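At this stage, I needed to go through a protein sequence along with its fold in token form, as given directly below:
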Amino acid sequence: MEIPPEYHGPDLESVAGHAGLTVAEVIERHQAPAYRVQCLGFAPGFPYLHGLDPRLHTPRRSTPRTRVPAGSVAIGGSHTGIYSIASPGGWNLIGQTDAVLFRPDAETPDDAVLLRPGDWVRFVPGSAGRRPTSARGPQRASEGPALLRVMSPGNGLTLQDLGRPGYARLGVPPGGAMDPQAAAWANRLVDNPPEFPVLELCLQGQRLEVLRDGWLARAGATAGAGTAEAPSWSAFRVRRGDVVSFGVSREGVWSYLAVPGGFDGPRCLGSVSANPRAGMGRTLAAGDVLTGPAPDAFQPPASTSSRRVRWDEIPRYHEPAPFAVWRGPQWSQFSESEQARLFAAVWTISPQCDRVGCRLDGPRLQPPGLEMESEPVLPGSIQVPPGGQPIVTQVDGPTLGGYPKLGVVDPQDLGRLAQCRPGQAIRFVPVG
């Protein structure tokens, strides 16, 4: 496959300086080889291309960018690649292409990606790539009864379930609810199985108009005492015309709203979970209408007319217990002092946190002096870039990465970590 990029990336001159070449020589050497797609990862459809001229091998940036545009042609270590979606990233950006590498609306999983392992790619002279067209339009939700209308999406409003594990070969992260325990509690309050789709709300500002008499349940981030909004950790009755609002939470970041029978939503790779960066699932905007699967779904819970979670079962997000951490794949390559510092330090949640990753403020860790090949990355991985400030990957984080991983947060604790607010202090404890 031939891909014609424009070579105007912000790191093009620094790559040239590192290689001791002119910019024109960098472009010539980048276009000379035929590249083999080794694997897909980091982001959905992101190709790791093998065959880069050794003179162009360039270490990753010491501090990753918080946003890299889709279509960016980049160099990271001994590989070149193309960012398939807008995402954070630490590779050196040398160009841009219009080629669409990931199509979440594709008919089959394999049709969702432009390139596959084993394919050959050449970068050819030209000003723009040809934009592949989708074989079908976006999937539509089923035509169930209208339950809620979005008046304001606030800081974020998406449909989520337990995610789409099993597609790492395409570079697709598992996704799903940021706090699956809280999402399961919301479903449980209205007699749903834990995998049923729920609304995920980030922080504050959401307002929903009720279009049908029925019941809802909320769990997760806790409302302030005496606030006139949807009650926390309980099922509650609503009537047509009511407005359900979500103000400033007292504790936590993410809350979940469930309806008996679950919400309808378009499925991508077997899940309704929204991944806004990858264009998968449904991110809701003002005016959107939420539907249910059946006319009788919006009914009271079977066992009682009102339910609440017991106070002693509600997580205390404002004072979290230390988070359990397993040794990471590169644990032994960090010095003993850096290993000890991970657990001795008090870390602070950075404002730079989202569904992809969470940066931690605190002492700078000294990573081992090595240039790693990219390898699988699990949600909860504590990566240490050259700048030394750890990053914990979240459910929409990369499936492959080249930063050393000092530890991995236990999966049972990852939801609690996601509920920690910027500025909140946390600690880690070792497992075993």
Remarks:
- The chain has three domains: 2-123, 146-313, 323-430.
- Residues 14 and 92 are 9 Å apart (CA to CA).
- The domain at 2-123 is CATH 2.40.100.10 (Cyclophilin).
